[in-house]
Amino acid sequence: xxxxxxxxxxxxxxxxxxxxxxxxxRNGWRITEQRKTLAKIFAEQxxxxxxxxxxxxxxxxxPSVSFDTVYRNLRMLSEMGVLEQFYFxxxxxxxxxxxxxxxxxxxxxxxxxxxxxxxxxxxxxxxELPGNYKILNHRFEIYGVCDQCQxxx
Amino acid sequence: xxxxxxxxxxxxxxxxxxxxxxxxxRNGWRITEQRKTLAKIFAEQxxxxxxxxxxxxxxxxxPSVSFDTVYRNLRMLSEMGVLEQFYFxxxxxxxxxxxxxxxxxxxxxxxxxxxxxxxxxxxxxxxELPGNYKILNHRFEIYGVCDQCQxxx
DNA sequence: CTCAATGCAAAATGTTTGCATAATG
DNA sequence: CATTATGCAAACATTTTGCATTGAG
Lengths: 153, 153
Description:
2 copies of one chain form a homodimer.
Chain A: H1 2-26, H2 33-43, H3 51-61, H4 67-80, E1 83-88, E2 92-97, E3 105-109, E4 115-118, E5 134-145, H5 147-152
Parallel strand pairs in A: 3-5
Antiparallel strand pairs in A: 1-2, 3-4
The structure holds a DNA duplex (25 and 25 nucleotides).
């Protein structure tokens, strides 16, 4: 099972990694070993990762990596739009690879943080809003417990 | 204008202050001068306040107040449900008095953080969601620039 | 070979904790 | 008067910065 699962994924992963690296390159950033590793980590991961998580995974491949480099790169990648950042109330700031292709919202597992996307957007309704705000953006997330996490405890 | 505006508000404010103090009392917390001030600050304020904002306003009345007391009380009031906390991406953790009476969502001014509520809730739609998540809660916020802030620059 | 990226150390920020003192109920 | 809340100081966690060195283009 693990085998063709992983195999099916690896194509998508390589594609994502290349996308991320291409975006960095396009924005004038150099492709370093650490940034390749960073891209790979987020391509292989559906959920959110804290800077600490990323650091831990990075140091597995590059034992000498430093925390500030991780932070710097996470920040840059967020600014470029390659990563989405999100602040969990408990658990602080986390990052995940962002889908750049289309507007969508997230269904997030509060246990493992695995995230699924869905296309329904409440802003497509004709909302009656109070005040005369000039609307800039919005945020809609649904939290729950995913199938796996429901069955495993 | 300021006069009957303020006057109309003051009734609501007193009511809110009493509500908050009653909730603290009900939960077995003592009503201290600082907590009264804290309740008043949030009753008089529509928008979000950072711990620093709260500290500054508190020290206007109690110059000797300390930061950790502010934090402690903010945390307690949040746990009790008297305050809602919210993490602004830029600007960190902030608090506002919470409306305990009915479910609603927020329209938030990104400039002054003045917040209006509205009753439309996307969860009332029959959403088709991926996965088999057991849904726990959700979050829907709209960000914009309020009337005042649009006209003042 | 030039300039950007890294690692290191140290600082800045934001939040929490332990404990003696003060104040509430 | 018993017990909780406060202020102080110090600890802690997280994120940012300055600078010499390394490495990508």
